[in-house]
Amino acid sequence: MTTLNPVAVGPTDETTDRPSRRRSDLAVLLHQIRYEQLSFWRNPQAMIFTFVFPIAFIAIIGAVFGGGEASDFFYGRTGMQYYTATIAAVSVLGACYGQLAIALAARRQTGVLKRLHATPLPAWIYFAGLLAHCLMVSVIDVVLVVSVGALYDAPVPADWASVGVTLLLGSVCYCALGAAVASLVSNSEAAPAVVQFVQFPLVFISGSYFPIHSDTLNTLAGLLPVKPFNDALLSAFTTGDGLHWKQHGILLAWGVLGTLIAVRRFRWDPRPE
């Protein structure tokens, strides 16, 4: 009778190797997240301006609107309630969209991405590490804005679960759009201008810096990625009425679109002059 040697059976080897591969991928992903975090925290200018802008802005708003009463101008909210949510949203947009697009363009221009692509590091782990890093920075930004807002009598968010879901979807959406924009710009010098060209008008028509009372403009902005994120955070911060499927669906749709553009157009090497 012939005895089979289990070591020689291919499917068994593959099944045995899967858990070790998953552990290996997880270890590499955690290492990539740590690398992105160390790179960020060791860059004092990037770190300071990422956190100082929203803190300074909300402090100025607090000096102006702190202790005010709810009004129709802020849709039944106080000025601090309104701006605590919208400035938190702007900080997430800056961390996940603006900084990511500029950083990817700069890394491609300097050849960092080309060298990285030549290593065994899977592309999905690299981008997952970037996403996790941006999400962590966004969480810190939101906590800082909420903390400073509380000093000016802005209540803490009413629904932390909704805040968490909205923050995750917004971060994924903005990171995907940041990667898409980075794939379209020709060089790192053009990246800040292109990023601001897209971000600046969206922030204003979406009511981030002042409420918009035009139905036409609100309808248009509601189909774009910034206002749905603002609205979902505003509701989570003030009313706590659960998840907002419409806004979350729009964020998810823009995230899918950004991902498709990035996958199709992303380049690891600099564009030829």
UniProtKB/TrEMBL annotation:
<comment type="similarity">
    <text>Belongs to the ABC-2 integral membrane protein family.</text>
</comment>
<feature type="transmembrane region" description="Helical">
    <location>
        <begin position="160"/>
        <end position="181"/>
    </location>
</feature>
<feature type="transmembrane region" description="Helical">
    <location>
        <begin position="124"/>
        <end position="148"/>
    </location>
</feature>
<keyword id="KW-0813">Transport</keyword>
<feature type="transmembrane region" description="Helical">
    <location>
        <begin position="193"/>
        <end position="212"/>
    </location>
</feature>
<protein>
    <recommendedName>
        <fullName>Transport permease protein</fullName>
    </recommendedName>
</protein>
<keyword id="KW-0812">Transmembrane</keyword>
<feature type="domain" description="ABC transmembrane type-2">
    <location>
        <begin position="45"/>
        <end position="269"/>
    </location>
</feature>
<dbReference type="InterPro" id="IPR000412">
    <property type="entry name" value="ABC_2_transport"/>
</dbReference>
<dbReference type="InterPro" id="IPR047817">
    <property type="entry name" value="ABC2_TM_bact-type"/>
</dbReference>
<dbReference type="InterPro" id="IPR013525">
    <property type="entry name" value="ABC2_TM"/>
</dbReference>
<keyword id="KW-0046">Antibiotic resistance</keyword>
<keyword id="KW-1003">Cell membrane</keyword>
<feature type="transmembrane region" description="Helical">
    <location>
        <begin position="245"/>
        <end position="263"/>
    </location>
</feature>
<dbReference type="InterPro" id="IPR052902">
    <property type="entry name" value="ABC-2_transporter"/>
</dbReference>
<dbReference type="Pfam" id="PF01061">
    <property type="entry name" value="ABC2_membrane"/>
</dbReference>
<feature type="transmembrane region" description="Helical">
    <location>
        <begin position="46"/>
        <end position="68"/>
    </location>
</feature>
<feature type="region of interest" description="Disordered">
    <location>
        <begin position="1"/>
        <end position="21"/>
    </location>
</feature>
<keyword id="KW-0472">Membrane</keyword>
<feature type="transmembrane region" description="Helical">
    <location>
        <begin position="80"/>
        <end position="104"/>
    </location>
</feature>
<keyword id="KW-1133">Transmembrane helix</keyword>
